[in-house]
Amino acid sequence: MMAAPRVSLGALKEPLGLSRGLQWFFSIFAFATCGGFEGSVTFSVTCAGGDNASQVTNVTATYGYPFRLNQAVFQPSLTHLCNHTWPRDVHLVGDFSSAARFFVGVAVGAFLYSLGALGLYLGYLHLYRCAGSRLPLMDLLLSALLAALWLCASCAWAQGLAHVRQAAAAPLPHCPAHSGDVTCARAAATPMGGLGASVAFGFLNLLLWAGGSWFVYKETPLHRPAPPPEPSPAPM
Fold first, then answer.
1. pLDDT tens across 29-61, in order?
2. Which of the four pLDDT bands, split at 50, 70 and 90, describes residue 1?
3. Full-prediction pTM beyond 0.90?
4. 43: helix, coil or strand?
5. Is the pLDDT of residue 2 over 60?
6. In 3-state terms, what secondary structure has residue 161?
7. What is the sign of the dihedral through the CA atoms of 82, 84, 86 and 91?
């Protein structure tokens, strides 16, 4: 039979509960700033016509999470411009979905675990701290695992973001480089400050989970001294 909960907000006043609350809060910012990003790149394509007349058309490629830039096609289609200079549709270059999805997956996992741990602290702290409980040790192992995952995910996404910036800043693919009849100029691009913030939140979460693991460690038998042995009776 499961023990009845003893709901108390006192755990939030302790480092154990406070650290979990911060982890829950900042994990939201991590996956929201990465998973909610939408951006675009716009180029002005100038096609020289007869009698020194020129036709200027803006083409835009829209992209976002999970950053499969090789699926972001420029619209309107360049196949209809400049006397069919482009034989097929043009898109951005690169697929950086693996790093982005790994980062968001770790953030969502951290959000769910910290929320569940908070519920445990608030309702069942008496069971968590009772003698012989294995909950603190399991909590420590999972906290250390999530700290390691935050390290890997943040480093991977930082590198992936650098590639996304590079791909978005590249010239229009397949634009004739030495043609006087067709010119391609960058017109606009979405700033990526929000994505830079997602990397910062990732490393902040790494610090929070690494620091929080210390407070969990203090709850385990590894930190608490073992009770002294009972003295043996004196010989008669």
1. 999 999 999 999 999 988 876 554 578 889 999
2. very low
3. no
4. strand
5. no
6. helix
7. positive
Distance between CA atoms of 29 and 35, rounded to whole angstroms? 10
Cα 192 to Cα 31, 62, 104, 225: the distances in Å are 15, 13, 17, 50
In 3D space, the residue among 57, 62, 101, 109 whose CA is nearest the CA of residue 82 turns out to be 57
- Tell me, what amino acid is at 26? F
Q: What whole-number distance in Å separates Cα of residue 136 and Cα of residue 132?
A: 10
Q: What is the DSSP string of 7-39?
A: --GGGGGSHHHHHHHHHHHHHHHHHHHHHT-EE
Burial class (CB in 10 A: 0-12, 13-18, 19+), 16: buried
Sheet holding 54-64, edge to edge: 54-64, 38-48, 182-189
CB atoms within 10 A of CB 13: 10
The amino acid occupying position 191 is P
Tokens of 22: 């911060």
Q: What are phi and psi of 105, to 5 degrees?
A: -60, -40
CA atoms in the 13 A half-sphere facing the CB of 68:
5
Helix (H, G, I), strand (E, B) or coil at 137: helix
Alpha carbon 52 to chain centroid, angstroms: 50
